[in-house]
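Notebook entry, structure prediction.
Reason for the run: the old model in the group folder had no record of what sequence produced it. Starting over properly, with the input documented here first.
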Amino acid sequence: MIIVLSGEQGERVATGVKLYQEGLAPRLLMTGGPVEWNVAAADIMAGQVKFLGVPEKDIVLEKRATSTCENALYSLMAPGPGDRSGGPGVF
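New structure, fully documented this time:
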């Protein structure tokens, strides 16, 4: 799974999609909590990767992290590589 941290979303998202398209991993994990109006950075990044051609089934969202430390901590709790039950993941 390719992990894309929130913060500077443009370049990080583009790099994550490039690595995904090169076949480095079967899914992208977008990690980032609320930024404005209770919209999670992970949701914003998911919209960007969908626009760039990543199917929704290959996008996992982590919407709680408010720091880099939390990005790492919550990313460790992501569904495993074989866990595709329920389609796109949100945890």
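Summary: Helices lie at 9-21, 41-51, 68-75.
The old model has been moved to the deprecated folder.
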